[in-house]
Amino acid sequence: MEQRVKCPNCGKETPAGKRFCGHCGARLVFEPPPKKVCTSCGAENQPDQQFCSTCGARLVTPTAAPSTPSAVAASPAEGKQVTVKPTWGLAWGLWWRALIIALLFGAVVYLVAMLLTVTVFGWTWKLPFGS
């Protein structure tokens, strides 16, 4: 049977050996089952053993620590969606720049037009502000 790991973020099961949850994208931390420590001699034993392999004493199953958020909850940058509020300062700055560019363009067109002679339907006018 394939060993599975429970995602600490969404609770879905994922095959062991994967680094990220396939459902929510959270980082998976594989923690092997804790070894049983003999209360008589202090030797470490496999989790499935009932008796100490060193002294033969009965092994007590360690009580599970209270559930605490793992490293996934400690890193807010992973898997969290951040909402960015629009700032109007940038938009107003762009509008002011566009206005200044339009005014400069209009001034250049006006200065060029002062040097021209206008002819419409056979009538020719020298613009009054030209020399």
- Low-pLDDT ranges: none
Strand share of the residues? 5-15%
Biggest sheet descriptor = 2 strands, antiparallel
Supply the helix-strand structural class.
alpha+beta
Number of discrete helical segments: 2
The overall pLDDT average reads 76
Instruction: Give the distance, in angstroms, between the N- and C-terminal Cα atoms.
Output: 98 Å
Oligomer: single chain
The 3D shape can be described as rod-shaped
Radius of gyration: 39 Å
Lateral strand order in the biggest sheet: 1-2
Structural domain count? 3
Please trace the helix and strand order, writing H or E for each element: EEEEHHEE
- In total, the number of strands is 6
Question: Can you walk through the features of this model?
Answer:
This protein has 131 residues and is an alpha+beta fold. The protein has three domains: 1-30, no CATH class; 35-61; 89-126. 23% of the residues lie in helices and 14% in strands. The protein contains two helices and six strands. It has a two-stranded antiparallel sheet. Strand 1 and strand 2 (13-15) form a beta hairpin. The longest helix has 26 residues, at 88-113. The chain starts with a strand and ends in a 5-residue tail after the last strand. The mean pLDDT is 76.
Keyword list:
alpha+beta, two-stranded antiparallel ribbon, two-stranded antiparallel sheet
Give the topology.
Blueprint: E1 4-6, E2 13-15, E3 36-37, E4 44-45, H1 71-74, H2 88-113, E5 117-120, E6 123-126
Antiparallel strand pairs: 1-2, 3-4, 5-6
Précis, in short:
The protein has 131 residues and is α+β, with helices and mostly antiparallel strands. 23% of the residues lie in helices and 14% in strands.
